[in-house]
Amino acid sequence: MPKGRIFEEAVSLLRQAGYDLPPEFDDSRKLILDVPKANMRFILSKPMDVPTYVEHGVADVGVAGKDVMIEEKRDVYEVLDLKISACYMAVAALPSYDSKADIAPKIATKYPKLAAGYFREQGEQVEIIKLNGSIELAPLVGLADRIVDIVSTGRTLKENGLVETETMMPITSRFIVNPVSYRMKAGQIDDMIERLARVVEGGSGQ
Ligand code: PRP
Fold it and tell me: Could you give the domain comment from the record (predicted)?
């Protein structure tokens, strides 16, 4: 499970799907949470690391953003769009920025591979600067000309005086599965996918 803002939505989805997750899930700093009744163990990692845990098989299944899936390109199955944590990836800049006048723009982002792939497809030559957060700061202090980042409410862009110049792709969280686990625990995993899918499609998971 991804720690942070996606966690709450994912827990709510699992509860709707009939998983009886204890109140501990609502307020804990623990990185491993056991639910013996459901025979489940939850591992909480940084969102960007979820596919790594699943690829290595220390987690059978996981919840990962489409942004993370594109950036990390891990060997896992993406089996269900959970349709939670909806946001989108965009390019943004200061309103005064003139992209036509810039021959080798610097792009700040937490997603270097995703951004490089996008600009390659657009046929635009750019220099990528990898940052770990607060990406909106980069154009304000002259570190980069543009940014590639997640937009959710648009508040961070607005409050920092940036404008969106290109909308890249919609992002939601996905349910992912380790390929070996899927073979070994097909019954359990399929049951989980079905229960989640029913909630996603608007019914009850049970
Ligand atoms: C994300 C993203 C934007 C912000 C967008 O950052 O990178 O900065 O949220 O949300 P908004 O459109 O609702 O303002 P996050 O808060 O996850 O932290 P980070 O900057 O450290 O990555």
Answer: Lacks the C-terminal regulatory region which is replaced by HisZ.
